[in-house]
Amino acid sequence: MAASHAPASVAAATDGVIEENVMAILDSSGIKDSRDLHDDRAAFLEAVRSTCLASDNPSVPSWRMYDGVFQILQNSSSLELAVASFHLLTELGKQYPRTYVADSGGHQSLVVVKESWVPFLFGNGAVSSEIGGNVRSSDHLFDPSRFSLLIEAIVEPTNGTDDNNGIKAIENMMLFQYLVNTLEADFVPRQIATKESLDWVIFRESLLSMLLGSRKLVFKSFVKNCMCILLNQYYHEAKDDYEDIIPSERETESTSYHNFSLNYLSFELKKTLISLRKLFVMVMKLDLTRKEADTLGLTSRADRFRNSIMDIILDELTYNSSYLSPFLLAFVERKWKLEIILQYFSKYCGKGAVRTRRSDNSQEDLKLENVLNFFVTATSAKAIVRKMSAEIAQLLLTHAYQACLSAEDANSNSADTPEKVGATLQEISSNFIAAFQNIRKVSPDIQISPFEKEALFTAATLVRKLKSKERFKQEGTPGLAA
Question: What terms describe the molecular function in GO for this protein (predicted)?
């Protein structure tokens, strides 16, 4: 029996040694030489990794361990420590999830380990009771106000000639990525559990809902700052295949530390844009679930009113038409991009009956097929163009068609995007071409961008192929029976 308890005792002793040195490591900036401080922090990160991840009998990281790693990420002043602490926090989150779904009697139930450490601070500012009597300051945790300030810091341009500024910018972007990953790790299991139980409270108690529902966060300003990041000069580089740009070892060795920092800054910016789009999608899903719960009468006074993120985005795109093209290029999530475009058109193409709380939800939402029908004749096209301009109409139609093609190519399992299309690909392609022809009749001098020309060429090619395929099926294949 003693032998079976030995590994746990060793792990507990190791945890105790690590925790005893955490505060000394983090609070010794004014005492130790910076090189010694760097080495101590690197040793601390390695000790946590060995104890909680690499050991044969890994132990659950304590509150202080998590807290120490998180503080190093925020105040490392070293690219090496920033990267190491970020990856360690990410791995710990995957190994020891705070929120997950478990099978219980044939049903999926939500499990929340409430005593687990989280980087967010809500309510009265109380921290985990695990700290015990020695309660430390929680200023390094992120309340809604500080989360909003982090977005503002990322929006502000960085002085690339200063290595310290570059490292701080990288720390801020890694912090944002980690916080979004934490929100997602809490959000996804709740989404799964909510679909089965239809319990809106599960979503209301999510980290994301508490963050956005706080009075400390001005939601409209927050969304506008997030849009500024998407609309910056790097939007055209925001791609999901960012792994290809990681510098090789040979390139790293042949360049200066300064140039490497700038390259890594660009690399982290691309990942930050991906995290930002992920955050936007989560908020849109939260708003949609809230809307459905409200329709079913499942919400209460505990659910504070907040404008939806879709409404704020549409307002910004409507009153700043120059934002449209860069935003639609940067926001690549096809389902939600199509939804934004359809709601943009709904502002100009008439609105259906107003839905009230607990209505029967019978009014159909606008679909791409309906939008294209508004351009079915030159007369109807003229009425729309008079309201939104021919250039904007062409741009929106092209991005909507692109989203339609992306869904077709991906063979998406989600039925949401096809439902928003409302017709076959052949019909959509034909109507897309007709819409451009009618817009040209209304505005004969309008220019067509290369992006729009490519979409028209693709549509014409698809129409020919699909018609030939349909004709081939109708005529059959003579000689096969024989």
Answer: transcription cis-regulatory region binding
Q: Is 17 part of a structural domain of the chain?
A: yes
Residue 429: predicted pLDDT: 92
Question: The tokens of 225 are what?
Answer: 């700052």
Q: Shortest CA distance to 61 belongs to which of 95, 99, 27? A: 95
Distance CA 27, CA 287 (A): 42
Please, what is the angle between helix 63-74 and helix 163-197, to 10°? 140
Residue 21's identity, in one-letter code, is N
306 CB-side CA count, 13 A: 27
Q: Are the C-beta atoms of residues 118 and 207 closer than 8 Å to each other? A: yes
Q: In this structure, what are the phi and psi dihedrals at residue 74, rounded to the nearest 5 degrees?
A: -80, -30
Q: If you search the block for the tokens 């690339």, which residue do you land on?
A: 160
What pLDDT score does 413 carry?
Answer: 46
Q: Per the structure block, which two tokens stand in for 141? A: 């945790």
Give me the residues of the chain with pLDDT under 70, please. Answer: 1-33, 124-137, 157-164, 233-262, 350-364, 408-418, 474-482
Do 41 and 110 lie in one domain? The reply is no
Task: Classify strands 99-104 and 107-112 as parallel, antiparallel or unpaired.
Answer: antiparallel
What DSSP designation does 238 have? Answer: -
Q: Give the DSSP letter of residue 242.
A: G
Query: Is residue 128, in this structure, part of any structural domain at all?
Result: no
Question: Could you give the C-alpha distances from 69 to 58, 176, 220, 265, in angstroms and in order?
Answer: 17, 15, 32, 21
Q: Using the structure block, give the residue that is written with the tokens 């038409």.
A: 321
The count of domains in the chain is 3
DSSP 14-28: HHHHHHHHHHHHHT-
Find the helix packing angle between 257-295 and 309-319, rounded to 10°: 120
Gyration radius of the chain's alpha carbons: 27
- Other C-beta atoms within 10 Å of 472: how many? 10
Please give the pLDDT value at position 25: 60
Task: Spell out a b/e string for 415-429, using b for 16 or more CB atoms within 10 Å of the CB, else e.
Answer: eebbebbbbebbebb
- The pLDDT value recorded for residue 476 is 63
Residue-level pLDDT at 462? 92
pLDDT reported for residue 244? 45
Verify that 227 and 260 share a domain, yes or no: yes
The three-class DSSP label of residue 30 is coil
* 109 and 237 belong to one structural domain: yes
Residue pair 159/191 in contact (Cβ under 8 Å)? The answer is: no
What pLDDT sits at residue 460? 94
